[in-house]
Amino acid sequence: MKLGMMRSTFLLLVLAISWQAQAAKPNVVILATGGTIAGSAESQTQAGYTSGQVGVDVLINAVPQIQELADISGEQVANVGSQDMSDAIWLKLAARVNALLAKSDVDGIVITHGTDTLEETSYFLNLVVNSDKPVVMTAAMRPSTALSADGPLNIYNAVAVAADPKAAKRGVLVVANDDIHGARSFTKTSTTDVQTFRSIEYGLVGVSLYGKNRWFRAPFRKHTKASDFSVKGVDKLPRVDVIYITADTSPDLIEAAVGNGAKGIVTAGVGNGNMTGPALAAVKKAIKAGVVVVRSSRVTSGSVGRNVEVNDDEVGTVASAELNPSRARVLLKLALLKTRDPATIQQYFYSH
Ligand code: ASP
């Protein structure tokens, strides 16, 4: 081969390889919903700030390094502090996630969100997303304008997880402070600490260190494609109230929930989902009126078992197993779209 020909063959080869490398980049869509990660304050050091101020473009432009990991596009689904997360936003978000994941040119999704109700939104999506592709939620404890804001690295790691084929089939994941959590199993443990999320009972699904992922486990309960739930065509979720139980709880809180139209009640009980005698009497009345009652616990770990100190078989209550009150509320809302039978709902609590 002549030297000139060899040179051009070599050039073509280099071009083909670099074109392939470019074409191999996955497509990741970032859906922004607000939260502290999009929050801003007047100074870099003040504690007070407003959540959900900064748009998705600003979040993306703050981390140009994510363009090396994936081809990125962004959409603003909402811009609220997650204390204002609602059924309406959940339904809109679920519809958008499912529509995007159905497209062959979308490989994964990152959702930015507030930390306050991330447990609920991630578990909701874990039950209603109908795809095996990665869905990764992230958040931040410090607003985007703070010194040492934690949002940018969390977004970088979240994109690295969403772009990783190994993230598929693990349900909705939550990436924060280098940790990868399963949507069912983490808890916000501190009001202010950057290391707020902990997967106390089951451990982490993995870790992401500057975008290098290491995987430890796959969540084993039914989720995403295997879930029994769907919100396709649903425009309203049934009302489910959580009643926090204390010593000497006022049973009229339970009566008020029923009177105001709750279709389901979750008790955030003491210990193994226990409650005062008068509260239990109000629960029995609620069940007679057709309301489904799930006993959960205000304790941060362990599970609520059937027929331990409350005879669920006799009373007609459902035991929440490992689901804390906020997640139990999500599952009960979805279960009530299908049935009011406590035995069937109990099985959902064991399997999801
Ligand atoms: N209140 C904020 C929110 O949940 C807190 C945070 O994001 O850290 O939107």
Number of domains: 2
Enumerate the strands of the largest sheet in spatial order, edge to edge or round the barrel: 2-1-3-4-5-6-9-10
Report the structural category.
alpha/beta
- Tell me the strand percentage band: 15-25%
**Sheet bearing the most strands, described?**
8 strands, mixed
Helix segment tally: 11
**Number of distinct beta strands:** 14
CATH class term of the largest domain: Alpha Beta
Bound molecules: aspartic acid
End-to-end distance: 65 Å
Named at the architecture level, the CATH assignment of the largest domain is: 3-Layer(aba) Sandwich
Task: Detail the poorly predicted runs.
Answer: none
- Principal-axes shape call: globular
SSE pattern, N- to C-terminal: HEHHEHEHEHEEEEEEEHEHEHEHH
Our Rg estimate from Cα atoms comes to 23 Å
Q: What share of the residues lie within helices?
A: 25-40%
Mean pLDDT: 94
Q: How is the CATH topology of the largest domain named?
A: Rossmann fold
Provide the CATH superfamily of the largest domain: L-asparaginase, N-terminal domain
Walk me through what this model shows:
The chain is of the alpha/beta class and 352 residues long. It has 11 helices and 14 strands. Helix 5 (118-128) runs parallel beside helix 10 (325-336) and helix 7 runs parallel beside helix 8 (277-288). The chain starts with a helix and ends with a helix. Aspartic acid binds at residues 35-36, 51, 81-83, 114-116, 139, 141.
